[in-house]
Amino acid sequence: MSTEPSKTLETFDNPRPERDYTVRIRIPEFTCLCPKTGQPDFATLYVDYVPDRQCVELKSLKLYVWSFRDEGAFHEAVTNRILDDLVNATAPRFMRLTAEFNVRGGIYTNVVAEHRSATWTPPAPVTLP
Known about the structure:
The chain is of the alpha+beta class. The protein has two helices and six strands, in the order ββββααββ. The chain has helices at about 60-65, 75-90; strands spanning about 10-15, 25-35, 40-50, 55, 95-105, 105-115. The termini are far apart.
């Protein structure tokens, strides 16, 4: 596997496709460039998903995230692009991407984007006594 930035997201077969379970991924070192100033923007990305048949392979995800380092993008656009690419690669039952951008000019930006498969119904929440 390469150690260079890449737009390729690799996957592997879900080991328990019959079960709904959540995969939570935290990516604390996301960077891209401000399309207006060219200055770096830093964010922590949180990916939460319920896989269907495929799971995302983490090293390929790391190299994919790294590929944005020299690209200019608005926070909203890059968050939705990453979600679209992850959904296209894995076809999950559900996926949420939260991008928490560091302060810039005294303003924090959080962008949350979601995908839900049309055929998936989330399980009922369990309330314990």
